[in-house]
Design brief:
The protein is 86% helix and 0% strand. It has 138 residues and is mainly alpha-helical. The longest helix is centred in the C-terminal third of the chain and has 33 residues. It is elongated, with a radius of gyration of 17 Å. The structure holds protoporphyrin IX containing FE.
Length: 138
């Protein structure tokens, strides 16, 4: 049983590392100066990977919960809230992106500013939550 829990937590932590890596790539992409067309092609690819990894993070968290028979620490409720916040801001990011026009630089800047702020907030929340999760389980 303990083996299964630690295996499930390993997958969960793997998903955290992957999503952090994707978030860093997204922040780097948003810091580049480039034309909107090539920018958006790469953005769509990266954000697809990001959303898939967010799903994996949620799924592996649920697996850990199921394997641990829902006998979990209070930090897990914060994890669920953080992931729900990440999903909510991703939906808003998608709406702002859809309102962006190829020839309208103002809408492009609005979108870029929103998305970059969202990714940096995600990184801060994930790092803070990881530190909290390990500090509590020590
Ligand atoms: C940003 C999102 C998340 C982060 C940064 C995160 C981080 C972590 C970390 C670092 C651990 C390992 C703690 C340890 O080894 O003691 C952990 C464990 C766990 N996570 Fe997450 N997690 C996230 C999302 C989720 C979600 C969405 C769920 C559930 C749906 C979840 C459920 C769990 C469970 C059940 C454990 C085991 C906790 C225990 O042993 O009591 N996590 N998480």
């Amino acid at each position: 049983m303990a083996d299964m829990i630690s295996m499930a937590i390993m997958l969960h932590v793997g998903a955290i590392v992957l999503i952090l890596l994707l978030l860093l790539l997204l922040v780097r992409h948003f810091s580049k100066e480039m034309e909107f067309k090539p920018f958006s092609l790469k953005y769509e690819q990266l954000s697809l990977y990001y959303r898939a990894t967010l799903g994996i993070l949620f799924f592996t968290g649920l697996v850990v919960m199921a394997v641990a028979k829902f006998d979990v620490l209070w930090t897990v409720y914060i994890m669920v809230l953080v992931v729900l916040h990440m999903i909510g801001t991703s939906v808003k990011e998608n709406i702002v992106y859809k309102l962006t026009h190829i020839k309208d630089t103002v809408s492009q800047e609005t979108f870029k500013a929103y998305a970059k702020k969202k990714y940096i907030t995600d990184i801060i929340m994930i790092v803070a939550l990881t530190v909290l999760a390990y500090a509590v389980s020590l």
